[in-house]
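Forwarding the complex inputs:
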Amino acid sequence: MGDLLNAFAVAGKSALGFQAVFFALLAIGLNVHFGYTGLLNFGQIAFAMLGGFGIAISVTQWGWNFWVGVLVGLAASVVLALLLGLPTLRLRADYLAIATIAAAEGLRLLFRSVSASPVTGGTRGLAAFNGDFIALAPWDTSRRYSVLGTRWSGGELWVALVGWVLVALMCLLVWLLMRSPWGRVLKAIREDEDAVRALGKNVYLYKMQSLVLGGMIGALGGMVYVVATGAANPDQFQNANTFLAYTALILGGAARVLGPVVGAIILLFVVQFADTALRALIENGIIPGELLSSTDVAQIRFVLVGLGLMLLLVFRPQGIFGDRREVMLDAR
Amino acid sequence: MRHPSATAGRPEPLRSAIRPGPGTVVRGVLLRLVLVLVAATGLAVLVPGATANAVGETIVGTLQTGRSGPIEGIEVTVTTAAGDEVDTVETDEDGKFAIEVPGAGQYTVTIDADSLPEGVVITGEDSRTVTVDPGRRQPVQFGLNDGTQGAGSGNVEAIQLFVDGLRFGLLIAICAVGLSLIFGTTGLTNFAHGELVTIGALFAWWVNTGLGVPIIPAGIIAMIGGAAFGALNELGLWRPLRRRGTGLVAALVVSIGLSLLLRYLIQIVYGGFSNPYSGLGTSRAVDYGLFRLTNQSLVSIVISVVVLVLVALMLQRTKIGKAMRAVSDNRDLAASSGINVNRVILVVWMMGGGLAALGGVLLGLSDQVRWDMGFQLLLLMFAGVTLGGLGTAYGALVGSIIVGVFVQMSTLVIPNDIKYVGGLLLLIVILVIRPQGILGSRARIG
Amino acid sequence: MPADNLPPGAHAASLDKNTGTGTRPGGGVPQRLAQAALRDVPWEIGVAKPDPAIVVENVTRTFGGLTAVSVDHLEVQRGGITGLIGPNGAGKTTLFNLLTGFDQPNTGTWSYNGKPLGKLAPHQVARLGVVRTFQLTKALSRLTVLQNMLLGAQGQRGESFLRALVPGTWRAQEKANTEKAMDLLRRFKLDAKKDEFAGTLSGGQRKLLEMARALMSDPQVVMLDEPMAGVNPALTQSLLGHVKDLREEGMTVIFVEHDMDVVRDISDWVVVMAAGRVIAEGPPESISQNQAVVDAYLGAHHDAPLTVEEEDQVLAQAGAAIAQEEHGGGEVLGTDSTTGRTER
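Prediction (whole assembly, three chains):
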């Protein structure tokens, strides 16, 4: 029973902590891409990685200010969006999907390679770059605090708070944009590009703007993540996380301003709860380690996510709160 | 463990259970699979716990190459999944190292590539992630190349790499033909195709090392298994989805979900190991003058060429092959001219599954069997298929060979561990210059 | 060169005034003018018109060796309704796609008011005042009817990323556009549906919506790809009325149609295509007497409009048919579809 409560607490903490912020930001970016514009970005994690390493490299390797690092990260994500978008956005949707998934895997391999390690730290990654940011916390970051039965360090709490403010700002931005004529063009592109072209809109330009915007929001997610963990390691940015974010997005409802946020919170709670509960069951010997060891549990989340993604798309493409009438992903 | 949210503060030692010795992974597979599925769907079952037995876990390995012999004094570092360093040791005069780890779990083993002797380079990454089972001495292998392959002038090295690239490209082609045909006939960009490759390789490994079947019959059995799995894909998932009228974009995301599901299920069931096939005989390269080739590589090339020629003959000459091309060309027209489209698609899936399994076995011969081998290859398959022209079988063939050769030969100028990056870069360059691919028609990219 | 008199990039509305003066005395009813102007034009292929809005020169488009379109010379009279007819696979839609920038030709040039359009992207063509509709209606399903309409408006300030964030910069314009959209919706009797998703409309209503949406941009040339296909007979008359209204408002209308009766009813001039070529042109009454048309067109199943896919399919067959014909072969369009008016 204690284990169960503990699992609730752990799951609740990650559903409110920086992990949820991370996935919420990734998913908000994907919402701009996929939910509103219909772009298939399967490499959102690459934007996050560039965001995170933008800070890490700027601060530790080049000795720049933390906030300059933030700008570097954002600029890097813009460059990536342009590089990916320029060749593919004129083509059918699959091409962007293939290029982005390839870029995500390729960039990670590049960042962890021996030749890149003088800059990126290779497989060991970089650390000690978030001091300036943590120091801004209005409370004592070396103490631990108790919130709703969960224990947080002061630093964690500060990152989570700033992270959620960032999430709120991004939601506001998306809300403002999507009720404007600009957002109307994006949604129209999602429905039928050719119709929008025939109405005199430069579809390519809008898609590019959407790709850049969503990518920058993803980069912010990566920044929150590395600042929270205090380390940037290429292997943290496995592309499977992109699909966790997709699951969060579809769960909460694509093309809704708060959909990705709600989805990220629910998804992280479920995944973390399953994770912790399974570990507890294994440690107590209820599930014999011979069958499932605690090292396997980390993979369970991706199995769950894969299964969830399939089931959602087949049975509830509109998300758990969505309106069947406005079903996402109609036949195309 | 490399996944972000999993890094938050654990690998807790697991001492309550002991996994029986090596090889039992194979036996436990089915049982574990069932349990994993049960657990994944949130239903925990009560099974009596195993007896506790604490034994020290160790990671061991040897660094040596044919020419240099054992390599002494190389720093080897083991870190936990969370990135905490466990220990750093140097290899002894036999090139061996052994590091005790605090418990079962996943660890990353990194060797200091810079301190390797002159002429010796690592093939692949300088770190390996291994899963240590309780009480087990977990061997870890690093591929080292002492330059005996392609030693001599740069010209000879280029030829050597070209031949290697040809082997690799043919292997990609074997896997990619199915991917391309599936795209052509159904419009589906199947992101789960890499898992067909992995499953084929794993199935062959299980038949080979678990049941003791020699590798060639094991490979054939794996191809049959792969074809059956392809058919299962089509009958159990894609055909019902088509009947539901699921859109192509939705189907694409479903294939991503399937890929994740299978890939991590494989990792749970199989683990993070790299395993070779058994009974391969010598792995010494034979000198052919301009280049050297192991017998396995030679066999791999021969098998690839024979199979691809057979596939081409089938597409060109047989009734079902012509039907496949007709459906690829224009599905409605094919249907209206009396072709049973569903049957053709089923055959395409079986063929794709079988070929992917074969590709997996060939990849396992050269690179060992790993849980994510297919996913790594998938991106190169995409590069090949895009280069050749999405949806054309011959395009996939030509494109894949070019990608394979390009990836291998790119190591002339870029470090070995980022050679795949070169392949992926090539993909993006192709998209800029000629998105319809070498053999594709412009109408297809619309 | 008419283009020499024109300020570059000027909006089509002003172009019309500049170049139209020669043939259009102010205050007249445009229909009669177009008809009158075309009365003395000989019924010849590629004949020069008194006041051409669009001029096509040597345009060819081939798909994998099959010629889909091969037009030597074609002029379209300003302010008139030009019907483009021909059997399935004659290349009408392909020609539309070329003229509006949705497809690139192998050779050839064409111009609008003397301004070459050959290198322009679809949205640039549309901004010049040449808008089109599609054979398969492209109603934007998950946008409401009103949102569909608003999308048609040109020069919207709020469609720029930065200004979108400051509603004050685009509110007033949005309000004016909404009023205009509601006027058009009333005219097309869709005003009651303004808040419904366009995807819930019937096929005929979608055709109406698409036409109304095109009118939001105040076009000078309207190109309608089979406006009557898939529309029930009750709506057909209303649609025809709307097309005539466009002419009354001084627009140049080009429309693709399979149905000869419709063409005869409203066209000022008819261009007949078969197998990618223009085989005849002239006023509607001239067409049914033309032997080439009777052979190539009326012999075929002219009452069976096809979907785009089917048309593409037939296109290939038509290409083969040309080859056959050139070798003295027999049958044209052997496997024409027998489906009726399909609603999609």
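Chain C touches chain B at residues 63-64, 309-310, 313 (CB under 8 Å).
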